[in-house]
Design brief:
Elements lengths: L12 E2 L6 E2 H5 L3 E6 L6 H12 L1 H6 L2 E7 L3 H15 L7 E3 L4 H6 L13 E6 L5 E7 L7 H17 L13 E3 L5 H7 L5 E4 L2 E4 L3
Parallel strand pairs: 3-4, 4-5
Antiparallel strand pairs: 1-2, 3-6, 6-7, 8-10, 9-10
Helix pairs in contact: 2-4
Length: 209
């Protein structure tokens, strides 16, 4: 199954390290980050799951619920969690889906046969409170993810939803945003009374809260 931005994230029920999870109900009114890893007891995955746990204050501040997945069973996840806590200095504080039947991996297209027919790739799905998929990232099994970039992308999504703006390359919170060309100058004056800088008629930079 090929998922696209704007689609409703497929719902599912699956076992996890925190018991059975009904995905949409578990998300509630929060944002979600569903991310898969190829296999338990592997080095890159160990660092990734530790980093996501370490970032709990950042997820909480943005009302984001992270949830991991691999095709290993719950018993394997539970044993691996000890290694993660020992080597990363941080216990896992979010659920890990046990997708042994590959039901969720198939729903989300996480297995790429040309990469490896038996393992999930490092997929990331950012899902908004309306259960729409807002961002999709796919990394090869050998490359660890940059979760600071995922946080930055969520900051952009939340800002652009709230303020009707776009964000430029390498944008960070607090920097100027872009007024989209679909908004006329007249409408922009009402929306942004603080004013903006016009670099080109289609490129207007504005500071927003």
């Amino acid at each position: 199954m090929t998922l696209q931005l704007g689609q409703t994230a497929p719902d599912f029920e699956q076992d996890s390290t925190e018991g059975p999870i009904s995905f949409h109900a578990w998300l509630g009114a929060s944002w979600g980050v569903l991310f898969s890893h190829p296999k338990d007891f592997t080095p890159v995955c160990t660092t990734e799951l530790g980093q996501v746990a370490r970032l709990k204050p950042e997820w909480d501040r943005r009302s984001v619920r992270p949830i991991a997945l691999s095709v290993d069973p719950v018993e394997s996840h539970a044993a691996w969690a000890g290694d993660i806590a020992e080597t990363q200095g941080q216990a896992v504080n979010y659920p890990i889906l046990a997708d042994a039947d590959r039901r969720v991996a198939s729903l989300y297209g996480m297995i790429h046969p040309q990469s490896d027919p038996n393992l999930t790739v490092r997929a990331v799905y950012v899902i908004d409170p309306d259960k729409r998929i807002r961002l999709i990232l796919t990394y090869p099994p050998s490359t660890g993810r940059n979760f600071q970039e995922i946080l930055r992308a969520i900051d952009s999504l939340q800002l652009t939803d709230a303020e009707q703006v776009a964000t430029p390359a390498d944008w960070l919170p607090g920097e100027a945003a872009i007024i989209p060309p679909s908004l006329s100058d007249e409408a922009a004056r009402s929306r942004f009374p603080q004013g903006w800088t016009t670099l080109k008629p289609y490129l207007r930079m504005v500071q927003v809260p």
